[in-house]
Amino acid sequence: MHKALFQTLQSVAFAEISVSGRVISANDGFYVLLQHSSGSVAGVDDVGQYFSNPPFAELVASVQRAAPGEVVHQGLLTFLDQSGEPHSLPARVFRQGDHLALLAEHDVGENRRLLAAVLSLNDELAEQQRVLARANRQLAAEKAEQQRLLHELAAAQAHLVQSAQLASVGQLAAGVAHEINNPIGFVRANLATLGSYVDDLLAIVDAYAAGEALLARDAALLASVQALCLRCDLDFVRADAAVLVAESVAGVARVARIVSDLKDFSRIDESEWQLADLHACLESALNVASHALRQVAVVRQYGVLPTLYCCPSQLSQAFMNLLVNAIQWLDLSRPGQICLRSGQLGDQAWIEIEDNGQGIAAANLQRIFDPFYSTRAIGAGTGLGLSSAWGIVSRHGGRIEVRSEPGAGSCFRVWLPFSRTASE
């Protein structure tokens, strides 16, 4: 079995050759070396012509002088194939009986050519990899630039949409505020006059009441007057008239305050930077959103804050957006509550707006400030409220932090620097 395996082995060449050059025996590897078919040179006496270096005659002379089994050559042995192409192999030539035997390994020259070809291919591959790496880096840079441009485009689009909406809302609010101011003015004046009239009428009534004893002479007239007082519930009217006038004056004052806040919101795009009270900005937003807070408990936990260099109308708009967001996500199955807090840490002021609503899923927290991103139903929101608030706060040199847990509500904390330089 081993002999058969060795006979078919092509990576090793083995042959027994007579001193006259005739092949006595050889395996397939020897025929592959000479590029002959298996057994085609068996018995041929001129195989020595294929030995190039050392020549066959030199090897024969060495074998004839050697003892049986002695190695006469160990090293490179160059053969010529039938096309005259040389092949150098590590070989061992020794005396086998009265003839020579050789054992040769793979083709060294071919191996070198293959190695050179592999190295060349490796160089080409390395160059292609470098080109590919450069292309990948360029592609990554282009992709990053595209992402930046897309982000800027989205921000610009959001700003344009917001500006257009705010311009429309501002014009509408300014017009409504102007139209409401006129009737409020004369209603307030009329209420003041009416209060004076009521006081005068009650004074007259008191004067007539003082003369009630004189009416006792005319029993019929006295009974008529007493019946009229009873029917009109004069004592209640006297007590309630002043209260009604005072409540009406307070209501008109509240309407006037809301209209004033609405007018402030109509100037949202004006860059009127000044020292302002953050609590006043927050209260202004609360007044405008009061219609949506009727069923919501508002808890104020304000700290002491100095005035801040800012654009008050813009911050009021940011607070308004955060309040509306909190209101929209309240859980209607339980009483709603919004807690407002404030304080300062170092050179920064902070305002917190916390609700006990549905909360925000962790997967959505990273995107809530992206323009046009909304988790509400289609048509229920534009996805610009929080993005607008983020933009306003960022333009003031601040930031917004969020903590939220689904089912446990959300808390938005707005940080704003006291430093005018940081704000600018």
- Please give the largest β-sheet: 6 strands, antiparallel
How much helical structure, as a percent, in the residues? 40-55%
Query: β content, as a range?
Result: 15-25%
What name goes with the CATH superfamily of the largest domain? Histidine kinase-like ATPase, C-terminal domain
- For the terminal residues, how far apart are their CA atoms? 93 Å
Assigned CATH architecture of the largest domain: 2-Layer Sandwich
Task: Identify the notable features of this structure and list them briefly.
424 residues; 10 helices; alpha+beta; 3 domains; rod-shaped; Beta-Lactamase; five-stranded mixed sheet; six-stranded antiparallel sheet; Heat Shock Protein 90
How would you concisely characterize the structure shown here?
The protein is α+β, with helices and mostly antiparallel strands and 424 residues long.
Layout of helices and strands, plus pairs?
Layout: H1 2-8, E1 13-17, E2 23-26, H2 28-34, E3 51-53, H3 56-65, E4 71-80, E5 86-96, E6 99-104, H4 108-210, H5 219-232, H6 234-266, E7 274-276, H7 278-288, E8 296-301, E9 308-310, H8 312-328, E10 336-345, E11 348-355, H9 385-395, E12 399-404, E13 410-417, H10 420-423
Parallel strand pairs: 8-10
Antiparallel strand pairs: 1-2, 1-6, 3-4, 4-5, 5-6, 7-9, 10-11, 11-13, 12-13
Helix pairs in contact: 4-6, 6-7, 7-8, 8-9
Mind explaining what this structure looks like?
The protein has 424 residues and is α+β, with helices and mostly antiparallel strands. β1 and β2 form a beta hairpin. The chain is rod-shaped and about 180 Å long. It starts with a helix and ends with a helix.
